[in-house]
Specification:
By secondary structure, this protein is of the alpha/beta class. The protein is about 50% helix and about 25% strand.
């Protein structure tokens, strides 16, 4: 990965020396002879990760220049070159967080290169952390969006279920008051549904038929009903039948959805023809 560095100094000889030294280490070097030009270069070159500036320059000192860079490009690592006579000003800038490292003039090449290396390592670590933080924020935003969508879906399904339950309650209330006996059988011929008229017809109206197999629910003089249900259940080609027992006309229907068998519905109506 290429490393891009900006050097700023009003002395051409120093710029040339620094550029040659850094390019020998494969850095991509940008140069400016004043602070304002340095700002313009960084504004146009977001790939720059490190700035190395002289302190004593006309119109804008190095610390003033680097403070502006900090305001506009916080992630750029800022270093300054200066003599000891300006140490107090530079120390203040370091304490304010505007400068990563202070290098003295004249510099030692190895020390300067090591400092530049450290600056780029700091920049790259900060960039990695920034990218990871952004990825985490993006993931959290997506998760929040997913959770919000899931909550909306659950709310919608809950509302539909509540409506379905309300409709079912109305249906059950209506069926309970229906004047004819209604029995629902599951696939094992166990009673899964009943109404008041069914309890009155087959019991003393205080005993529920729910959960009883047909041979236990329909006994004594209703034994013929059990036999008729068994015969109908065994006939796979027949979906509906009607027969009379004990002055009642029974309608027996096989319930299904597509290929799924759902059980049977038994309706008993008094035979008024007799």
């Amino acid at each position: 990965m290429e490393r891009h560095i900006l050097i700023v100094d009003d002395e051409p000889n120093i710029l040339n020396t620094l550029q040659r030294l850094l390019e020998e280490e494969d850095y991509v070097v940008y140069r400016a002879d004043c602070g304002q030009k340095g700002i313009d270069i960084i504004d146009a070159s977001p790939q720059i990760g490190v700035v190395l500036s002289d302190q004593r320059m006309p119109n804008m000192t190095g610390t003033e220049f680097l403070k502006q860079i900090k305001l506009k490009h916080q992630n750029v690592v800022r270093m300054i070159l200066s003599g000891y006579s300006e140490l107090s000003t530079i120390t203040n800038a370091i304490n304010e967080g505007s400068i990563f490292k202070f290098l003295t003039k004249p510099w030692e090449d190895d020390l300067l290169l090591n400092s530049v290396q450290e600056a780029f390592e700091y920049f790259e670590l900060a960039e990695t952390n920034r990218q990871l933080t952004q990825q985490l924020q993006d993931s959290n935003a997506k998760l929040a969006e997913f959770n919000a969508g899931l909550e909306r879906m659950v709310e919608e399904k809950t509302q539909r279920l509540q409506l379905h339950i309300a409709s079912l309650n109305v249906y059950q209330d209506a069926m309970e008051q229906f004047p004819f006996a209604i029995i629902g059988l599951d696939e094992s011929l166990t009673i899964a549904l009943e109404n008041k008229a069914a309890r009155e017809l087959f019991t003393d109206n205080t005993t529920s038929l729910l959960g009883l197999p047909t041979e236990q629910a329909f006994h004594n003089h209703w034994r013929a009903l059990t036999d008729a249900i068994s015969v109908f259940d065994a006939d796979i080609d027949q979906s509906k039948t009607r027969f009379s027992i004990n002055r009642f006309t029974f309608t027996l229907i096989k319930l299904s959805h597509e290929t799924e068998r759902l059980g049977k519905l038994l309706i008993a109506i008094p035979d008024t023809s007799q």
